[in-house]
Amino acid sequence: MTESQRSGCPINLSLEVIGDKWSLLVIRDMMFGNRRHFRELLLGSEEGIASNILSDRLQRLVNEGLISRAADPTHKQKVVYSLTEPAIQLVPVLVALGSWGRRHLPVSRELSIRAELLERGGPAMWDAFMDELREQHLGTPRPEGARSVFAELREAYLAELAAVAADTSSAGAARVR
Q1: Segment 85-111, tens digit of pLDDT
Q2: Nearest residue to 36 via CA among 64, 8, 75
Q3: For 72, which of 1, 17, 80, 170 could close a Cys bridge (C-beta 3.0–4.6 Å)?
């Protein structure tokens, strides 16, 4: 145990790596939003992460081995971030956090639909999603015709966004009458 660690407890050690306010959100955005570039992570953050905080968290996550950083082959001045295997194995943790949040906190429909689907899909869905993340981030091929959990989650999210927009516009139209 190094001096910076408070104890050898696995929960404590995990929290020392991913327990700050932003690290899991960066991983979430890479995992569920397929955001791989600094600008995508910065502008796509629902929570409005500041650029200096994002830069710090990306560096910390690289140093901890949860993400990797490589030159972007499509643009000389950009880097692409990828989840590593330890980060991909956080899928069940993020599912559990999402499930708990859906039950106990005032979540929005559109931002909780993925948590609901993953909870209902159970470990088989999580495994399929982790395999898909391995393909996206690590280049590990999946069998041809394999299920795209990413697409299922994205479609459900977009459907909820459309439903919320429709509810908002119909409520606005009702007020005008």
Answers
A1: 999 999 999 999 999 999 999 999 999
A2: 75
A3: 80
